[in-house]
Design brief:
397 residues, alpha+beta, disordered C terminus, binds flavin-adenine dinucleotide
Length: 397
């Protein structure tokens, strides 16, 4: 079952996409097949990184992009699923990605210049995490100090940053000169930006590691996103839209492995295996249902995030954790069905497992996301609001 076949039965759940938009997804799917055939081996990190960036540019120049209007987030979510079905490393092969923060919050002239660059395939990274812990963004210490002519000078260190060597700029979360958390755009070619590349155990497609800012000058009139002190708001609004895209990519990867395992089992049956055991059939059926259900939830979350629904952030946090967990569990359950062959380092199953492990941390570590969701679901303490438990007690009395 190829990746598009997973989407076909979901058409009626995505009324925002018309026939042209579905045809564009089909063309995108075909292009992915062609390009992916030429992918360098994952072990060759340098070749792989430049191939991925080249792929992004090639897809952009061939016009593979989401339509404008309400179909945009739906198309992008499904495109991420199709990309993930080939390889989780393709998670940034189309779309604005983290550049969406620039398009939404940068001054108009800066946003418009970046729109052209992103449309042409350039990539923007995000630098938020620090040594004190990525799950505590409120505690960041990267500091901007006021300098001559109203410039800001940035000093600090960001860690575990993805797209480290490929991004043309980074949306960087800092403390502004008044100590508030703000988001600024930092050009990647500034000589005061230092990078330390670290070898990851999965998700090795893009460069990954440490980004140091050494008294790096920026002009806040151009580089500041939103207003001073709006960093947290920008972060949360962005991740409400971005996390469903990450989730769809992970689910695509699980669907890709599902298809591969199903093909191998079908080939064994056709080659004369007396029967496919029930445990294999049950796993195929259950994981198909789980991946489909999670994808439908993800589409809903993308839709709500684009509409600015007040619950979108909550659904995106919980949906990312639960959706990526679903994908990781599906691959874990499917892997043994084809035996040791899938344990070879070069096998797509081995790669998918290692890559998905990275997504358990990237874009929000899962215990933190679930915990933060739990806090939201509990609501804030309301001393004056009669509790439901109290009213139940009164009724019984
Ligand atoms: C492949 C990959 C790509 C990434 N890409 C980027 C990127 O592009 N840009 C970027 O900025 N970051 C990136 N990250 C970092 C990622 O966002 C962080 O790993 C994530 O936010 C968790 O932060 P942390 O690793 O520092 O863990 P921590 O925040 O240190 O959390 C580790 C554990 O400690 C727990 N914990 C936190 N506080 C407490 C407490 N008070 N008591 C007890 N336990 C606690 C957490 O819940 C968690 O279980 C990436 C990470 C990976 C693995």
């Amino acid at each position: 079952m190829n990746a598009l076949a997973w989407l076909e039965p979901l058409r009626s759940s995505v009324p925002e996409l018309d026939t042209d938009a579905w045809a564009a997804l089909e063309r995108f799917d075909t292009a992915l097949d062609e390009f992916h055939r030429a992918s360098p081996v994952p072990e060759d990190a340098a070749a792989r990184s430049s191939w991925l960036l080249g792929l992004r540019h090639d897809l952009a120049s061939a016009g593979h992009r989401a339509p404008s209007g309400p179909g945009r987030p739906m198309w992008q979510t499904l495109a991420q699923f199709l990309a993930g079905a080939r390889d989780l490393d393709l998670r940034d092969c189309t779309g604005a990605g983290h550049g969406a923060m620039v398009l939404t919050h940068a001054p108009a002239a800066v946003a418009s210049a970046w729109e052209q660059r992103l449309l042409a395939g350039d990539l923007i990274g995000i630098a938020a995490t620090e040594r004190r812990g990525g799950s505590r963004i409120r505690e960041i210490t990267t500091q901007a100090r006021l300098s001559n002519g109203g410039q800001w000078r940035l000093t600090g260190e960001k860690c575990w940053v993805s797209r480290l060597t490929e991004a043309a700029a980074f949306v960087t979360f800092i403390r502004d000169p008044d100590g508030r958390i703000s988001a600024v755009l930092v050009g990647a070619d500034d000589p005061r930006l230092e990078r330390d590349v670290i070898e990851p155990s999965g998700l090795g497609g893009w460069g990954w590691g440490v980004l140091r800012l050494h008294d790096l000058p920026i002009n806040p009139a151009e580089a500041l996103l939103g207003t001073p002190g709006s960093g947290l708001e920008i972060f949360h609004q962005h991740f409400a839209r971005f996390r469903p895209l990450v989730t769809a990519t992970a689910l695509g990867t699980a669907a890709g492995i599902h298809g591969l395992v199903a093909d191998i089992l079908a080939a064994r049956r056709d080659a004369g295996l007396p029967r496919i055991r029930d445990n294999a059939l049950i796993t195929l059926g259950r994981t198909h249902a789980e991946i489909t259900a999670a994808l439908l939830t993800t589409l809903t979350t993308s839709r709500l995030a684009a509409a600015g629904h007040p619950q979108a952030g909550l659904l995106a946090r919980l949906g990312k954790a639960a959706g990526v967990d679903t994908a990781a569990r599906a691959i874990s359950d499917l892997a043994p069905l084809i035996g040791a062959a899938g344990y070879r380092r070069s096998h797509p199953i081995a790669k998918a497992r290692a890559d998905l492990t990275g997504l358990l941390y990237a874009d929000g570590i899962h215990d933190s996301l679930y915990r933060s969701g739990g806090i939201s679901l509990l609501g804030s303490p309301a001393k004056n609001r009669p509790s439901r438990l109290a009213s139940v007690a009164c009724t019984r009395a």
